[in-house]
From TrEMBL:
<keyword id="KW-1133">Transmembrane helix</keyword>
<keyword id="KW-0812">Transmembrane</keyword>
<keyword id="KW-0813">Transport</keyword>
<protein>
    <submittedName>
        <fullName>Carbohydrate ABC transporter permease</fullName>
    </submittedName>
</protein>
<feature type="domain" description="ABC transmembrane type-1">
    <location>
        <begin position="77"/>
        <end position="267"/>
    </location>
</feature>
<dbReference type="InterPro" id="IPR050901">
    <property type="entry name" value="BP-dep_ABC_trans_perm"/>
</dbReference>
<feature type="transmembrane region" description="Helical">
    <location>
        <begin position="244"/>
        <end position="267"/>
    </location>
</feature>
<feature type="transmembrane region" description="Helical">
    <location>
        <begin position="112"/>
        <end position="132"/>
    </location>
</feature>
<feature type="transmembrane region" description="Helical">
    <location>
        <begin position="188"/>
        <end position="210"/>
    </location>
</feature>
<dbReference type="Pfam" id="PF00528">
    <property type="entry name" value="BPD_transp_1"/>
</dbReference>
<keyword id="KW-1003">Cell membrane</keyword>
<dbReference type="GO" id="GO:0055085">
    <property type="term" value="P:transmembrane transport"/>
</dbReference>
<feature type="transmembrane region" description="Helical">
    <location>
        <begin position="7"/>
        <end position="28"/>
    </location>
</feature>
<feature type="transmembrane region" description="Helical">
    <location>
        <begin position="144"/>
        <end position="167"/>
    </location>
</feature>
<feature type="transmembrane region" description="Helical">
    <location>
        <begin position="81"/>
        <end position="100"/>
    </location>
</feature>
<dbReference type="InterPro" id="IPR000515">
    <property type="entry name" value="MetI-like"/>
</dbReference>
<comment type="similarity">
    <text>Belongs to the binding-protein-dependent transport system permease family.</text>
</comment>
Length: 282
């Protein structure tokens, strides 16, 4: 019976991996296909001849050279990196301070926690118009700060909720021991609690980075040009009214995907523990 269970588990794992990894495989292979293979039926699962034209901008006819292609995508890549990094940093700092206050001093109580969670239920489209009006009055439309502040509205509540649970799992006796040794609240928080909370901080920073990186709707509403537009909006230029340039779109998709993968790998040491810490109490 054990070998039967092993086979069943292996088949299920293979199906799950296929479900999640096949889109990535298709994205990579399409990025290297020539234009005549974008729409073939039955589809070609392996390019008959590989090309870098989609990265150079030759196949789709959108760019004239590799230099032009790089120069075209660079502003959007820069904007995405700056906005996502600031959102990850600010969201982690704000949520850590708020979560510590709720966890240790019960500021706001459970009503505050419920309010935090309820913000996650708000669809982004419901906040798009009010945010546009606010930022237009502040003359922040088509700026990095408009996107950063708008994305913080989405990421900070969820990050705070995660860190409240995380701080609850850190023994209060550590705070009390620090107070006995003469440390204040701030010194106890920064010197004792934060180092122990590194896995949770890494988890919320990674999740905030990913959520900001892939956000499309608010970026569409709050930006008007390449001075602040991000990569998700750049990808939309390959979808036109008469065709979809799958090759350049896949090539740009790879460029869009790589920074998230690199950021997640850098935080991998703490990420798994941060996401699972506090899930089971013994």
């Amino acid at each position: 019976m054990r070998w039967v269970k092993g086979i069943v588990k292996g088949v299920l794992v293979a199906l799950v991996l296929f479900f999640f990894l096949f889109p990535v495989y298709w994205l990579v292979t399409t990025a290297f296909k020539k234009s005549e293979e974008w729409f073939t039926w039955p589809p070609t699962f392996w390019p008959s001849s590989w090309t870098l034209g989609n990265f150079m901008g030759v196949e789709g006819g959108f760019f004239g050279s590799a230099t032009t292609a790089i120069a075209t995508i660079t502003p959007y890549l820069r904007n995405s990196i700056v906005v996502a990094l600031f959102v990850a940093l600010l969201s982690t700092v704000i949520s850590a301070l708020a979560a510590y206050a709720v966890s240790r001093f019960k500021i706001g109580g459970m009503r505050f926690v419920s309010w935090i969670i309820s913000i996650r239920m708000l669809p982004p489209i419901a906040s798009a118009l009010p945010l546009y009006v606010i930022f237009s009055r502040l003359r922040l439309i088509n700026t990095w700060w408009a996107l950063i502040l708008a994305h913080l509205v989405i990421t900070t509540p969820f990050s705070t909720w995660i860190l409240i649970t995380f701080f609850n799992e850190i023994p209060r006796e550590l705070d009390e021991a620090a107070f006995v040794d003469g440390a204040g609240v701030g010194q106890s928080f920064f010197s004792v609690i934060l180092p122990l909370a590194a896995p949770g901080l890494a988890a919320v920073a990674t999740l905030s980075f990913i959520q900001s990186w892939g956000e499309f709707l608010l970026s569409l509403v709050l930006t008007t040009g390449k001075e602040a537009q991000t990569l998700p909006l750049y990808l939309g230029r390959f979808i036109t009214g008469w065709r979809i340039a799958w090759g350049p779109l896949a090539a740009a998709g790879i460029v869009t995907m790589l920074p998230v993968v690199v950021f997640s790998l850098l935080a991998q040491r703490y990420l798994v523990r941060g996401l699972t810490f506090g899930a089971v109490k013994g």
